[in-house]
Design brief:
- The protein has about 300 residues and is α/β, with parallel strands linked by helices.
- The protein contains eleven helices and 15 strands.
- It has a seven-stranded parallel sheet, with helices on both faces. Strands 6-15 form a two-stranded parallel ribbon.
- Strand 4, helix 3 and strand 5 form a beta-alpha-beta unit.
Length: about 300
């Protein structure tokens, strides 16, 4: 049976576990006893490790032929030191993994002015967090080339699910951009991203990047309108970019500075993926059917 190491077993990776556990013996890094207990109960072998402390990573070297890396970079700095720590420790094992799949971000493309974006477009990361993600890609690809390990990248856009919707923001009345200044945004349901992770572990091509997104082509304000309408909430107010700059946080504003429409042909052709939720309308309809949002008190 294949051995799989998950580094960063968060929401998306946990959604993939039922499929993965039927095909692999799964190990996952954890940083707390509570995490270890939850994963052990699901059939995963937990390994106490902290990517910020290289001395804790000794046990992961050589433990698995497949690696799913979904841990985010640290919060500050120009480089992803965690990816560097992981690559160094994997290189020190008696055996190397055959394949690494990294869940990155489509933010590495930067602002594309609403253009259609295939994976062949050169990255132009603008924000520090996207630059750290791009650095992680480069670290892992360099490791793969030097060590003969197949490294594949899933560039994920905004991840949503029934429990990952901007309901609080809509209820607060936070504004969105007016139509003439709005940006295109991209999405993937967490269940579909989990499935893409599993497929990539067995089907992705070495050195390949994949836009891990659905078929939606929608502007951000229209997405918020759709969420609001699905759950019988008032639509957010539309404002100018100048007004948004006065009312929204710098983090939120950074998402309004980039516009792109990702091309997902490659995940369908090479990973042979069939999305359960091909667009956000399908995903939101399912969330409504699940009673995902409680009415306000």
């Amino acid at each position: 049976m294949n051995r799989l190491l998950i580094v960063g077993c968060g929401d998306v990776a946990r959604r993939a576990l039922p499929w993965l556990l039927r095909r692999c013996r799964v190990y996952a890094t954890v940083r707390s006893a509570a995490q270890a207990q939850r994963l052990r109960a699901s059939g995963v072998t937990p390994i106490r490790a902290d990517l910020d402390r290289r001395s804790t990573l000794a046990r992961i070297a050589g433990i698995a032929g497949l690696v799913l890396y979904s841990a985010p970079p640290q919060a500050h700095g120009a480089h992803d030191e965690r990816a560097r720590h992981l690559a160094a420790r994997l290189a020190s094992g008696r055996s190397l993994p055959r394949r690494i799949v990294y869940i990155g971000t489509s933010g590495v493309y930067g602002d594309c002015r609403g253009e259609r974006v295939p994976e062949t477009r050169p990255p132009a990361a603008c924000t520090p967090r996207a630059q750290r993600r791009l650095d992680a890609e480069r670290v892992l690809r360099r490791f793969g080339r030097r060590r003969g390990v197949a490294v594949s990248i899933l560039r994920s856009p905004g991840i949503y699910a029934a429990d990952r919707l901007p309901i609080d923001r809509i209820r607060r009345g936070d504004p969105v951009l007016r139509q003439s200044e709005d940006v295109f945004t991209n999405h993937i349901h967490a269940d579909d991203l989990a499935r893409l992770c599993a497929l990539a572990l067995f089907r992705a091509r070495p050195g390949r990047a994949y836009n891990a997104c659905d078929d939606s082509s929608i502007r951000m304000g229209d997405y918020f309108d759709l969420v609001a309408g699905t759950f019988d909430l008032p639509p957010p107010p539309r404002v100018s970019r100048a007004e948004a700059a006065r009312r929204l946080s710098p983090m939120t504003l950074s998402f309004l500075a980039e516009s792109r429409r990702l091309d997902n042909t490659r995940i369908k052709r090479e990973l042979r993926a069939r999305l359960r939720y091909p667009d956000v309308r399908a995903g939101l309809a399912a969330a409504r059917g699940q009673g995902a949002v409680e009415p306000p008190c």
